[in-house]
Design goal:
Among the domains are: 87 residues, Alpha-Beta Plaits; 154 residues, 3-Layer(bba) Sandwich (FAD/NAD(P)-binding domain); 144 residues, FAD/NAD(P)-binding domain (3-Layer(bba) Sandwich). It contains 17 helices and 20 strands. The protein is an alpha/beta fold. Helix content is 28%, strand content 17%.
Length: 560
């Protein structure tokens, strides 16, 4: 937001002089306006411009914008990196909030709730994404898989004018967003609306189309300039224990896929779920909505559970029981139906390759659980049928720093690279689109400037007033369990989202507070005549007193 008038030059250390009649301390150091990267952007896998979007809303009144004008501008800024603000505002575990400097005061900014409000505003207003060109390029691009990675790649390629065709094996788009996340977390009409916005940009969808069966892979190589592979990981791992072939045993991905496809499953009165990730928690909470008592078996402790903390808390509030340090070792069947599970007590040993302590069986310590259904949600993997040529050794698809596979003009991303959260898949899709465009045009892909991370200890935290974090309204547990589709959390109102934006401290970037200008006694800091324009520094007027840097709330000014 700011710049200096004179070219930066290397200066010496501190010095003292009389400073004229004032006798003030002087030095040969001078202020430089250096933008830093805030923790929110630093921890977002897709590097969404969180600070900018929050501050657009934060400064709306000061800069003469209406609330709606500010939200529309912020929405367009967000859409520069991600086409799924309403979706991610509901399902993302918000790593952006984990290191938020505001946590040093009364709590992190509720970025996830703000993103959801921003996304829903865009849907309500029917906003359309900005294209980077109105030109239609001749090079056609194929995208295999319509999960978050594939649809994001299609979105960013369409913005650049490419004709894109998305091939999807399932009847509907969305990948694990549709088939792996229950409606109470992500309503399908919200997903449909954000997907339709991508389609409206000219992206062609071909569902119920299996590459290698319905369309030969060789035809894609012949007809398309580049291919992006984002087939996801829809196949659940089996437990590999006796009795697992019972008719009332499902993997977590299969169970959720059936439920999200509208199939009614009779799970009976007593469901046991195995696993500690989001799929396990989702399967357990869906089973509660089907009327069952539910027990989750997890072989480690609560501290090691990879599921989103809010989802674990939600499951407990809904009456799900979690038995830690326990794992199934056998299933007893009555006819073709699993009726009893033999469970092994565990203890934690040394850390494994994941960094978590390895669960070790306690010799001779087993017990039994009765069940009417068992759901194994221990992990999942891609179905590589037809894509065997992309696999390297015993690994999944590997990519280089340019998102390229070992096959020429074939790029990949999402869960077929490595299991991760949706925003990571969105990043893969965005980067692949940039790299495909670079391959076609010969242009060098945009690379963000390296910036220093700004932490709370380098800011003037006392400057900021206390503001309580927004509270998201939720349905009480008894109302949640009455329906499979009732959304638990509500969207912030625009006023609530604005109040949350006002909590953003603009860490590492000027937000026009005027503090540096008010502390400068030498008229070296020039405040812009137009609000929102950059401040300037007149180096010839500066005596190096350092007051501007010492009192800058957001840590934007450095002395060199």
């Amino acid at each position: 937001m700011a710049k200096v008038v004179k070219k930066k030059k290397k200066l010496g250390g501190l010095g003292r002089s009389s400073g004229g009649a004032s006798g003030r301390e002087t030095s040969d150091l001078r202020p430089y306006l250096v933008e830093k990267i805030p923790p929110c952007i630093n921890t977002c896998p897709n590097q969404n411009q969180i600070r900018e979007c929050l501050m657009i809303v934060n400064k709306a009144e000061a800069y003469g914008k209406t609330q709606e004008q500010a939200f529309e501008e912020a929405w367009h800024r967000w859409m520069e990196t991600s086409p799924f603000p309403s979706v991610c505002g509901r399902v993302c575990p918000h790593p952006c909030e984990t290191e938020c400097n505001r946590a040093k005061l009364e709590g992190a900014v509720s970025i996830n709730a703000f993103e959801r409000a921003l996304g829903d505003f865009g849907l309500d207003k029917g906003l359309k994404p900005a294209r980077l060109t109105e030109e239609t390029r001749p090079e056609k691009i194929a995208v295999i898989g319509s999960g978050p990675a594939g649809l994001t790649a299609a979105y960013h390629l369409a913005r650049r004018g490419y004709p894109v065709t998305v091939f999807e094996a399932f009847p509907k788009t969305g990948g694990m967003l549709r088939y792996g996340i229950p409606d109470y977390r992500l309503p399908q009409d919200i997903l449909d609306a954000e997907v339709q916005r991508i389609v409206d940009m000219g992206v062609e969808l071909k569902t119920n189309t299996i590459i290698g069966k319905d369309v030969p892979y060789e035809d894609l190589k012949k007809d398309y300039k580049a291919i992006f592979v984002g087939i996801g990981a829809h196949t659940g791992y089996s437990l590999k224990i006796d009795g697992e072939d019972a008719s009332n045993v499902w993997t977590g991905t299969d169970f959720l896929h059936r439920i999200n496809s509208g199939e009614m499953i009779d799970v009976g009165a007593k469901v046991v779920v195995v696993g500690g990730g989001d799929t396990a928690i989702d399967a357990a909470r869906v089973s509660r909505r089907l009327g069952a008592d539910v027990t989750i078996l997890y072989r480690r402790t609560r501290n090691e559970m990879p599921a989103i903390e809010e989802e674990i808390e939600g499951a407990l509030a809904e009456g799900v029981t979690i038995e830690y340090l326990a794992a199934p070792v056998a299933i007893t069947k009555t006819g073709d139906v699993a009726s009893t599970i033999t469970c092994q007590r565990m203890q934690l040993g040394e850390p494994d390759s994941s960094g978590r302590r390895r669960p070790v069986p306690i010799e001779g310590d087993t017990y039994e659980l009765a069940c009417t259904a068992l759901i194994a949600a221990i992990s999942q993997q891609p179905d590589f049928t037809g894509f065997e040529n992309l696999i390297e050794g015993r690994d999944w698809i590997k990519i280089d720093e340019h998102m390229k596979t070992k096959v020429e003009s074939v790029f990949a991303g999402g869960d077929n690279i490595n299991l991760d959260i949706a925003i990571t898949a969105i990043y893969h899709g965005r980067r692949a689109a940039e790299e495909i465009h670079a391959m076609v045009t010969g242009e060098v892909p945009y690379k963000p400037e390296e910036r220093k991370l700004i932490k709370a200890e380098n800011m003037m935290m006392a400057y900021y007033e206390q503001r309580q974090r927004a509270t998201v309204k939720e349905l009480p547990p008894e109302e949640r369990l009455a329906t499979l589709t009732g959304e638990i959390a509500s969207t912030l109102t625009l006023d609530e989202a604005t109040n949350e934006a006002l909590r953003c401290m603009s860490c590492g970037k000027c937000f026009d507070c005027g503090t540096c200008w008010s502390f400068c006694q030498d008229n070296a800091i020039v405040k812009p005549l137009v609000k929102g324009q950059p401040y300037k520094v007149k180096m010839d007027y500066c005596i190096g007193c350092k007051k501007c840097a010492e009192n800058c709330p957001c840590g934007y000014i450095e002395m060199h």
